[in-house]
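We modelled the chain as a single entity of 117 amino acids. Its sequence is:
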Amino acid sequence: QVQLVETGGGLVQAGGSLRLSCAASGRTFSSYAMGWFRQAPGKERELVAAMTSGGTISYGYSAKGRFTISRDNDKNTVNLQMNSLKPEDTGVYYCAAGIATMRMNYWGKGTLVTVSS
């Protein structure tokens, strides 16, 4: 089984930055799509950013231009650099892995990001 552990969440003021990291184990990391989803209070879970095993990247609309996803297959990690944070970015961020961006089979427990105004 794939196991995913997120780190890096916390409290930050609007306009600030955070870097989330996800450590993966249990499967061949390089063969999976990896990504980040978030769930804001009162809203459905949504895509933030994802990268396929071939390197194709997808960003959610609100993340485009502010967030950057990267992965290091040698270290079995995937990261999310978040800049110019807004209060609307507040939510629980989940690391995910699977056969495709929209077919994620494995999920971390999540890390809370709170952006104050």
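As a brief sanity check on the tokenised model: The first strand starts at residue 3 and ends at 7. Residues 4 and 24 are 5 Å apart (CA to CA).
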